[in-house]
From TrEMBL:
InterPro entries: IMPase, Inositol_monoP_metal-BS, Inositol_monophosphatase-like, Inositol_monophosphatase_CS. Its cofactor is Mg(2+). Catalyzes the dephosphorylation of histidinol-phosphate to histidinol, the direct precursor of histidine. Keywords: Hydrolase, Magnesium, Metal-binding. This is Inositol-1-monophosphatase. It comes from Streptomyces sp. R41.
Length: 271
């Protein structure tokens, strides 16, 4: 694709993320309730997830009617243009339900299964992160203008701050807790934000040395993974593989390989 086409996709993703973020931030009802559940009774969807995805897909379709969609809340069309929008309208739904601030809107444009544009808006932080493949990762927030993102210089693993997440299926969560218990003594510490998109952007912004999680879907990863890589982080799954549902890892070079190796040794990807 040409640079003008990349710019068009980026501007559209930014506008859709901004509008959806404003809807979620300003339109959250005081009596917000669970509208549906997914993998388990505690893996929830709210009416606002659904409304935000509709806003995003409607806006993009107005400008690019031939594009496809893959969205967490059900958007699934192939399109004919070769571009597929991979959308998580509200990453961190449980945080949002409880009134916690760590949630985000995640939008990526993919061609041939590869993200070429990614935007993550975190309205309660007042920050938006974006990347175009080959163009670096950037953010806007409380500082003046755009800020280029660069992952942290790699510390020794025992001084690394690493984030993770936990599945909503009890048996999977129990195994993840066992892996984390084995990993914690080997790191500076572990964090758990509740939003994969925010964690990946925090790796990009140098706020974390690494992140890993099992059980993510394409919409959880697509934008944040591109942003992390464009900030200089390494990303992958099991050794030699791309990030996938089995395992996703993102970290500063120097932290990535030893972290990935330990996760493989501890069976972080096992059922």
């Amino acid at each position: 694709m040409t640079q003008p086409q990349h710019t068009e996709l980026l501007q559209l993703a930014e506008e859709a993320a901004r509008r959806a973020g404003e809807l979620l931030r300003d339109g959250r009802p005081a009596d917000l309730a669970v509208a549906a559940t997914k993998s388990s009774p505690i893996d929830v969807v709210t009416e606002m997830d659904i409304a935000a995805e509709k806003l995003i897909t409607d806006l993009i379709s107005q400008h690019r009617p031939d594009d496809g969609f893959l969205g967490e809340e059900g958007a699934a069309t192939e399109g004919t243009s070769g571009i597929c929008w991979v959308i998580d309208p509200l990453d961190g739904t449980v945080n949002y339900l409880y009134g916690l601030p760590t949630w985000a809107v995640s939008i990526a444009a993919e061609r041939d299964g590869e993200a070429i544009v990614g935007v993550v808006a975190a309205p309660m932080r007042g920050e938006t992160y974006h990347a175009v493949r080959g163009g670096g990762a950037w953010a806007v927030g409380a500082w003046d203008g755009e800020r280029r993102l660069t992952c942290r210089p790699a510390p020794p693993l025992d001084q690394a701050l690493v984030s993770t997440g936990f599945n909503y299926v009890a048996e999977v969560k129990a195994h993840q807790a066992d892996v984390a218990q084995r990993l914690i003594p080997l790191l500076r510490d572990i964090r758990r934000s509740g939003s994969a998109a925010v964690d990946l952007c925090d790796v990009a912004a140098g706020r974390l040395d690494g992140y890993y999680e099992r059980g993510l879907n394409p919409w959880d990863l697509a934008a944040g993974d591109l942003i992390a890589r464009e900030a200089g982080a390494l990303t992958g799954g099991r050794p030699g593989e791309r990030p996938a549902r089995d395992l996703a890892v993102a970290a500063s070079p120097g932290v990535f390989e030893p972290l990935q190796r330990l996760l493989e040794e501890f069976g972080a990807w096992h059922d």
